[in-house]
Write a structure and sequence with these properties.
single chain, 6 helices, globular, two-stranded antiparallel ribbon, alpha+beta, 146 residues
Length: 146
Amino acid sequence: MPDPLIHPHEILTAREGEPVEIDTDMVPTIRELWRLNYTTLACCQDVGEATAGVRAQAEEPLGYGADGFIAYHRGWALLKLPTIDAMRLVALLSQEPAFVDRVSHRWRPGSWRMNVPLVPEGLDGAALLHFPREQLPELVEVLERQ
């Protein structure tokens, strides 16, 4: 089994008291989200790099993570949140000048890629928010002001 910890990480203590390994560049964002009572399910500071690293360690094909996927996601961070928390975060960011266009308009440079997978029962309970990693400091600034 490959080691999924591709990036340097820190161990934070989640609200439930359990230790959680968080990519170092995501730590300030996760701390602020937790302070604001958001639940986080997963995060990654560079999805493309992480996928390439996991693929390189895998003994068998992953079933995802082809070259195109990796190239597309290089430089993109990921937050996975319960859908209700993702909606709350996007609503908050839509009120911020630095983020309103990024979360309101798809497929523009700097825009966030946001999705909630469909499952047989309807919408999945978790949303995936992909955004340029370079936006992490601005995101933390916005969250700190809340």
